[in-house]
Amino acid sequence: MIKKKIEKDYNKKIQRLIKLNKYYYEYNNPIVDDKEYDALKKDILDLESKYSNLKSKNSPSLIVGFKPSKNFKKVSHRVPMLSLANAFDQDDLNNFEKKIMNYLNQKDNLEIEYSAEPKIDGISASLSYANGNFVTGLSRGDGKEGEDITENLKTISDIPKKISSKDFPNDIEIRGEIFIQNEDFKKLSSKFANPRNAASGSLRQKNPLETKKIPLKFIAYTFGYEKGLEISKQSEFLKKLKEWGFKTNPLNKTIKGIKNLIKNYEEIENKRGNLNFDIDGVVYKVNDFKLQKRLGNIANAPRWAVAHKFSANNGISKIENIEIQIGRTGALTPVAKIKPINIGGVVVSNATLHNEEEIRRKDIRVGDTVLIERAGDVIPHVISVDLKQRNDKSKKFVFPLKCPSCGSKTIKEYNSITKKEDAVRRCTSEGFACEKIAIEKIKHFVSKEAFNIDGFGKKIVENFWRLNLIRLPQDIFKLDYSVIENLDGWGKQSVSNLKYSINTKKTIPFEKFIFSLGIRHIGLENAKLISKNLLSIKNFLLLSKTKKFDDLINIDGIGETQVSSIKSFFSNITNLKVLTELSELINVKDAVLVKSNGLLSNKTFMITGKLQGISRAEAKSLIEENSGSIISNVSNRLDYLITGEKPTKRKIDAAKDLKVKILSQAEWIKMLNKTS
Ligand code: IVH
What we know:
Helix Hairpins, 26 strands, CATH 2.40.50.140, about 35% helix
C-alpha cells in the first residue's frame, strides 16, 4: 500500500519535471525559479536512491534538457568579442592613461574615472536575450565567430533564463566569465591542470549532462550588441546587471587616479587567497561610455581598457594548517596547507616551509597571510608573512619534538663536515618501525630508478599499506592477487597487469638493488660504486657476518658518512630480514664489469625519445658497461644519437647538421650484441 503511494508520488513529480523542462527548454519561458526546479530534481533523485524499484526514462539522472547537435554550430558575434591589452606595473599604467589623454587631446585637466573589476580567469561567453528570454549563448571563439553552447550554458544556474525587468533591453548580448570555484576545482584537480581548463572542458562537453556535473558559475561584466540600453557609465551598467538578476563581482569599484588604482590592485592581490574564484589581475575600463566610444579600438583591443595582471610566479594566500611530513630518511619537513591559489596557471595548495629554523626565522603561523612563490619546477615556498594581516590571537608554531607518526624522539644531527647542527630534525626510529618512514621506503623501493615497477605508484603503496597488504618491501613479491581482485577499483585485467609488472621486475641488477634499499647517503652513484666493488648480493649479505664495513672505505668515492650509514643499516634486524627474504624471492644479477676495451670504447652516445621496453637509466648502464659514455648535448663530441619514440626534432636536426650518426633502437641493440 505504502509502496503504491510512493510510486504514485514519484510519477507525479516526474510529470511535473517534464512540464517544467518543456517551459524551460522548448519555450524558453521557465514557470518556476531555479531553486524550485532544483528542489524537485533533488526530491526525485532522493526517492530513486531510496527505492530501487522507481525508474523513469525521464529521470533527471538520465536527461538534462535537450542535447545539442553533435558539433557545435559556429555563429558570428553581432559585435566582436575583443581582448585586452596587458599592464604589469605603474609605468605601463601611466602609459595607458597618457595615450588616452593624447588621443582625447586633453592636458592634465581631465581626471578619468575608471571601473576597476577583478579579472576572473575563466572562459568568456556571450548570452543573447530576446524579449527577456535567454536564447543563444556563444563561446568567444576567435572573437568574431563563436560556438553555439546554448544548451550547456543553460545548465548554469547563475545564468538567468528569463528576465522580466521593465528596463531590460529587448535585444541585448550580456557578456561575462564562466568559471569554476577553487573549492569545487579541488575535487577535480586530478583531471585538469587548473580551474580555467576545467571550466573550458566542461563547457565544451558534447553532452550537457556532463557540463551539469561540474558546478560552473557566471559573472557578468559587459555587453555586446544592444538596442535600447539607456545607460551612460560602466558602473551604472554593473549595477543594472545585478538588478536584472546577474551575478557581478563584489569587488568592482570606481576609482580615479593611477595611484588609487595601484592601491586597489594591492588590496585585491592581498585578498586573492581568500576569494573562492581565481583572478589573474584587475581590469580598468574608462567608466564613461561616451569617452569609450570616442576612444574606440586599436587592432582587437579597446583603447579604453587595460588588464593589470598579477605576477605569474607568486601570489598571496592564507595558511590553513601546518603539517609535518616524514620522509624516507626520517626527515621531518613542515608543509603549509594553503588556501588553493592559481599561480601562473597552476593551482598551488601546498608550500614547503623547509625546516624548523625557517619557520622560526620567518615566524610563520597558522592563519597567516603569506606571499607564495612558485618558480619553475621548484616546490612552492613561502617568501614572507604579511604581519599587518595577522590575527592578534595567533600563536607561534611549535615544532613537534616527537615524531608525529611513531612518537619516537627526534633529533638534529651534528654534521662533522660543517661542524654545525643539521637544520633538519629527524625521527630516530629504526626505519621500518615508523609507519610513515616505512611507507616512504616502499615508495622508494618501487620507484623508477629503483625496482621501477610499472603501475605501482605512490597511491597504490599507500592503499596497500592501509589494507595491510604490505609492510616490508618483500611483501610486494608475496601479494595475494585474489584479494586485490576483490578490492574497489581493481578487476581481473588490472590485477593481471600488476602481476605482470611485478614479475618482470624480479630480476634486477645488483646496483639497482642496493639503491632500492634506500640506505641513507647511498644514492644511485654510490650504489654503483659499491656494486662494482662487491660484485654480487652474496658478498653484500656476507657483510652482516664478516662486519668488514671498514673495507668499503677503500672504494674510490665512498667516504666515512656512507660507511657508517651502511654499518647502521646492517645493525637493524628488520633490514636484515628484508635483505634475506628479498634475496630468496628475487634474482639479483651480479655486477657486470665494464669492458674497458669493449666495442663501444671511446664512443659517445645520446638518447632522444622513448625507448621500447628499457628505461633510460638501464640504457645508460648498458652503454657504460660496454665502455661507451653518455653525453647530454648534440655536439662535435657526439658519435651516435639513439632515437626512440617521439624523438626531439631539434636534436635530430642538430645531429644531421653535425653529421652525427643516427641510430634506431634496433640498430643500437645490434651494435651491443656484437660487443657482448
Ligand atoms: S571586458 C573589451 N571585463 O579578460 C573588453 N573582461 O583579456 C573585453 N575578463 O576575454 C572584456 N574579467 O574573458 C572584461 N571584468 C572584466 C573581465 C574580463 C575577465 C576576461 C575576458 C576577456 C579577457 C580579455
